[in-house]
């Protein structure tokens, strides 16, 4: 017969024998097997699942393993293998009893898979093959419910109807939901009645009574969750929910004052604030925003606007008041909410109102302009003194003081005593299209009374600017370009303002139309296309083309401008790409900029060097202005065989040779009297260059030249009195003739012109004095 291993286990009840698995559901040996029970017969083993209650704190007997070959003589040894063997579970090797030696927690681990083996002690061999079995930890209710998403907070509108969903709370239980009711929860409300209720099974909180935020704006609700459907022995957990009431516009604004008294001066301008009124609204935020309005005001003199920050009503002057005409007013104002939902209109059926009394105070009034502002138009380019417009103001008082007008801070316009505004400068709309002026009217009898009015002058456009290229164009054409090839698209701009859209017309000049290698096509969209008018270009023959393009606008009258487009011939690549030429131009321009900068630096250095040289020369000249005071004067006399050319001869002698030093003469004291100098000069006519008299004469003339501020830096004294001894031509001068000075009359020199005036003065007067 086959052997049989009996597996016994214990679950809060006695063991059943033999080959019977005992559970709380087993009643007899042939009773119905429990759910989850598993039985298999293999090679004499009977193995099954063991159910162990959790929370076992001490060593606890679980069940027994026994082979049907065991005859009770203790010759068999039972062994336990697998996860948890010897650490959590132990087995009695002789009897096969299994024990749990550690505390078990199903929430940490609910299943253990072990293996059992029976060995014959005498032979040391296994009596039967290993057999695997399972130990399952059964659940007990040892975990209380816990809420997942604490803390809870919800917002619900005030005055919400009953049954309105507020929030849903959810709790979880770690116990086994398949074991009894351990994880079946029941929700209840501990705090929050009578305004809230909760669904026991879902945890949904609903409103059970209407609430008014103005009375209480938030509520604390405490929720409890119990497992085991609230049965005795159930565990529970609690949480709190903060429920806030959001505002709805269920309150209208109300005036707390039934009467307001305000005052206004008759001199107050339109728009002046004369006082404030205030209504109160129990709502908050957007629901408390309100609008004030005038309900009763037959004079249409006042208005009310709302201050959006303070929600006050500001009473302002809508029209000027006049004490002499009316000195008091009575108006009624009302207030209502700005945002009201149609569902809440029942709370706003009648608006709150209040009465306002306004007293007008008498004042010495300034002049009043007939209009609150003036707008004038004038065409640009009108001449000086052109009429712009007229403003008018009057004195509202009984004395009717004359008025003087002035314009504040304007150099373009002026105004006369009649209020007529004229231009004082030319106007250009492209510079300034609008002028905002302030005209002041002042009483002549009381300059403290004045008023101002804004005057807006619009400068109207005339077509005074011709269109021009919208940008600088850098155009290239390939040498191998075909006829009709597009090389550039151009556009134009016009600084004039046009009542219609600008429209430009592009054409070539007459000269370029007849001779140009290029053509232009007007695209009729304010652009034009430049095309080649021939095939092939030569970079060596003509590298640059200049074409004149006429651009006309649609103004009245139409203006035309001539714009020059420069086209460079480019040695393009195989694909006809001109980018290589553009890169070259950029490189050359960069190199040119570098050369220009270098040249500028060199010029600056040269200028500084020149200035430095001039300063040095001036300093040296100052040091040698009167050389006879500091060193011996050196004079050089040279002899020539040719005749002198007169006073205007500047090329008879080599000035460089005259200035070279060959003869050094001794410096001697000279006389300074004018009569002696004239006598010495007359004597010098009879002597040679080595005469001391001649040398003194030269020194005297040199002193005159040095002290003359109009003399040039270098002076040349040319003397022709001594004819020289080596001339082959002989003397041609009359000065050395045999006629004596007394016989010669020099008065004819006075008739020879200004050039001989000095000679006539010297010789004519000298001869007369001698006579």
Automatic annotation (TrEMBL):
Function in brief: Cadherins are calcium-dependent cell adhesion proteins.
Gene Ontology CC terms, in alphabetical order: adherens junction; catenin complex
Protein name: Cadherin 19
Organism for this UniProt entry: Prolemur simus (Greater bamboo lemur)
Topology relative to the membrane: Single-pass type I membrane protein
InterPro entries cross-referenced by the UniProt entry: Cadherin (IPR039808), Cadherin-like_dom (IPR002126), Cadherin-like_sf (IPR015919), Cadherin_CS (IPR020894), Cadherin_Y-type_LIR (IPR000233), Catenin-bd_sf (IPR027397)
Transmembrane segments: 596-617
Location in or out of the cell: Cell membrane
Domain Cadherin: 67-147, 148-255, 256-369, 370-469, 469-586
Keyword RNA-binding: no
Record key words, sorted: Calcium, Cell adhesion, Cell membrane, Cleavage on pair of basic residues, Glycoprotein, Membrane, Metal-binding, Repeat, Signal, Transmembrane, Transmembrane helix
Gene for this chain: CDH19
Molecular functions (GO terms): beta-catenin binding; cadherin binding; calcium ion binding
């Amino acid at each position: 017969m086959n052997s049989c291993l009996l597996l016994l286990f214990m679950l809060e009840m006695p063991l059943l024998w033999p080959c019977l698995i005992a559970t709380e559901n087993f009643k007899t040996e042939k009773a119905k097997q429990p759910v989850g029970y598993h039985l298999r017969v293999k090679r004499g083993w009977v193995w099954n699942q063991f159910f162990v209650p959790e929370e076992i704190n001490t060593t606890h007997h679980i069940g027994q393993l026994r082979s049907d070959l065991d005859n009770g003589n203790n010759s068999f040894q039972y062994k336990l293998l697998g996860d948890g063997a010897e650490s959590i579970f132990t087995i009695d090797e002789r009897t096969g009893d299994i024990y749990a030696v550690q505390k078990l927690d199903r929430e940490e681990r609910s299943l253990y898979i072990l293996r059992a083996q029976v060995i014959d002690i005498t032979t040391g061999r296994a009596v039967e093959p290993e057999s695997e079995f399972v130990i399952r930890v059964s659940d007990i209710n040892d975990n209380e419910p816990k809420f997942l998403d604490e803390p809870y907070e919800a917002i619900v509108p005030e005055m919400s109807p009953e049954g309105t969903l507020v929030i849903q709370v959810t709790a979880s239980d770690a116990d086994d939901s398949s074991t009894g009711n351990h994880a079946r929860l029941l929700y209840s409300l501990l705090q929050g009645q009578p305004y809230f209720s909760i669904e026991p099974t879902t945890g949904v909180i609903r409103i059970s009574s209407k609430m008014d935020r103005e009375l209480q704006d938030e509520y604390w609700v405490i929720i409890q969750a119990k497992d085991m459907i609230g049965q005795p022995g159930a565990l529970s957990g609690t949480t709190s929910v903060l429920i806030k009431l959001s505002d709805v516009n269920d309150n209208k604004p109300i005036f707390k004052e039934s009467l307001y008294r305000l005052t206004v001066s008759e001199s107050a301008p339109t728009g002046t604030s004369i006082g404030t009124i205030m209504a109160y609204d129990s709502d908050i935020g957007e629901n408390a925003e309100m609008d004030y309005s005038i309900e009763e005001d037959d004079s249409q003199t006042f208005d009310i606007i709302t201050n959006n920050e303070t929600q006050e009503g500001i009473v302002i002057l809508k029209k000027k008041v006049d004490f002499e005409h009316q000195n008091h007013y009575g108006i009624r104002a009302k207030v209502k909410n700005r945002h009201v939902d149609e569902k809440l209109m029942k709370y706003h059926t009648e608006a709150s109102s209040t009465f306002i009394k306004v007293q007008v105070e008498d004042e010495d009034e300034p002049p009043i302009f007939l209009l609150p502002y003036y707008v004038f138009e004038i065409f640009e380019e009108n001449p000086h003194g052109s009429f712009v417009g007229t403003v008018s103001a009057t004195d509202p008082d009984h004395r009717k003081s004359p008025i003087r007008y002035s314009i504040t801070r304007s150099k373009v316009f002026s105004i006369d005593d009649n209020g007529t505004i004229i231009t004082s400068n030319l106007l250009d709309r492209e510079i300034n299209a609008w002028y905002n002026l302030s005209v002041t009217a002042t009483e002549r009898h009381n300059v403290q009374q004045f008023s101002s009015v804004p005057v807006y002058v619009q400068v109207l456009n005339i077509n005074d600017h011709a269109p021009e290229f919208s940008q600088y164009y850098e155009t290239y054409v390939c040498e191998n370009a075909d006829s009709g090839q597009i090389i550039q698209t151009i556009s134009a701009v016009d600084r004039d303002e046009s009542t219609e859209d600008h429209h430009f017309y592009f054409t070539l000049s007459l000269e370029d139309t007849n001779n140009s290698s290029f053509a232009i096509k007007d695209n009729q969209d304010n652009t034009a296309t430049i095309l080649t008018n021939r095939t092939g270009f030569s970079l060596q023959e003509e590298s640059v083309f200049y074409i004149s393009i006429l651009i006309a606008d649609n103004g009245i009258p139409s203006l035309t401008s001539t714009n020059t487009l420069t086209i460079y011939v480019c040695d393009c690549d195989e694909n006809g790409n001109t980018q290589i030429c553009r890169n070259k131009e950029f490189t050359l321009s960069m190199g040119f900029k570098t050369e220009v900068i270098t040249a500028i630096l060199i010029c600056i250095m040269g200028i500084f060097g020149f200035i430095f040289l001039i300063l040095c020369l001036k300093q040296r000249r100052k040091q040698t202005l009167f050389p006879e005071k500091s060193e011996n004067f050196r004079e050089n006399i040279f002899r020539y065989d040719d005749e002198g050319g007169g006073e205007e001869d500047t090329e008879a002698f080599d000035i460089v040779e005259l200035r070279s030093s060959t003869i050094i003469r001794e410096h001697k004291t000279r006389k300074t009297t004018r009569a002696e100098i004239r006598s010495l000069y007359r004597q010098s006519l009879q002597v040679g260059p080595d005469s001391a008299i001649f040398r003194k004469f030269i020194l005297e003339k040199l002193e005159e030249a040095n002290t003359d501020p109009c003399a040039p830096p270098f002076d040349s004294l040319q003397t022709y009195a001594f004819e020289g001894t080596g001339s082959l031509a002989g003397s041609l001068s009359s000065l050395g003739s045999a006629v004596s000075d007394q016989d010669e009359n020099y008065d004819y020199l006075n008739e020879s012109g200004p050039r001989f005036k000095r000679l006539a003065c010297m010789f004519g007067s000298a001869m007369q004095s001698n006579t």
